[in-house]
R domain-containing protein
Amino acid sequence: MRLLIICAIIVLSQAAPLDPWRRRDRDQTQGVGGPLLTASSEVEFDQEWDREYRPNMPRYRRRRDEPERETRLTQWNREHEAEVQERQREAQIRAQEEEKKERVHQNHMEVERRMEARRHDRERRVHNKHHKEEMHERERQRKAQLRREHHTRRHPIVMQDSDSIERF
């Protein structure tokens, strides 16, 4: 069973390798239908590929020591260089202004946030103070109530509701 699985793996790997370049190389070396690309056909293929996919590449590359040839484009660039620089300067100034506006906005938001936090803290402190005073008042009233109850417990005969205290 294991031998069968191993044979199947070998056959399948020979039939369709995962890497297509490896398959092409294998086909060339084994001579299946002859070599796919000869050296000259490969050069032709490269040229065709260049024509197809790189139409905007310059066909002429100057050497480093060779001076740049005057073309209409370089002439136009030379004539309009000041204009281009002016545009760049304007764009830079605009970008700085935008950045400044953004910074001002950020500062404003930060100040707003801080003021809000301060207001919140102040409200909390006032609330705590009032709460403390309220609790203090409640405690005072409770103690007074306890004092009164203590008095009535010691002298149950004394009537609390009547104006004149009568003893029976």
